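Researcher: Here's a chain I'd like modeled. Treat it as a single chain, no partners, no ligands.
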Amino acid sequence: MADVRRPGVLVIAHGSRDEDWVQLVDAALQRLRTVFPGVPVTAGYLELVDGRLIPDGVRWLEGQGVTDIVAVPLFVSSGSTHIDEIQWALGVKAEPALETDLARVHTACRVHICPPMDDHPLIAEIVAERARALAENPAREVLVLVGHGSEHPGFRERWEGLLERLTRRVGQAVGFAKATYATFHPDTLRDRVAEAARRGRVVVVPLFLSAGYFTRTVIPQKLAGLSYAYSGEAYLPHENVYRWLEETVRQGLARAAAPSPRG
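Model: Modeled as a single isolated chain. Structure tokens:
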């Protein structure tokens, strides 16, 4: 018999009680439905959005007759512990690396998990644009990228690898005299910015998907009393996030359509 497949898309996002965040995700889903007509598209949140958690998304896709789920983590870094627990929850790995509150979702669908944003060229362009907008004379300035980071072994290395790559790429693209990075975990932000300020004017760019508590409150509080240029702009609603999402889904759909290896 022919291997008849019907793919669907599950965009996985962090939950929030902020309606603005849910609306941003819904706008992204609508764009995907326009670009990929006939492909069922829905969201699955980690928490806080009642009726729209990951199991709800999987069950909805099953109800649409989907055989293959293309799961797209709407996350900044593969160093996020959420990526690991999502893989476990969807049955892609046998055990989570860390304790998780997510439930295992059992499904007969094949699951194809896509990579998060990391330093994809479209995402690097956003970071460079944010930095360029704040710079006055990059050749005499220091760039500090700020990421969430992690103190868990393995996850910390993935976060730092991403930050090193983005720091190098954006620093060279914009022409900063020096470029470095800081994280919340471990907490290096204030020390890194204070050190950078001794070398010149400091430009601080956050690596966060959306503006919120971390960009509006935590970073300014941690840097109180220091001199630096900062707008608090996050990745969304930049057009490149939607372009990245479309490209990632297109690649995931192609993998889902590939013939299964014969045993």
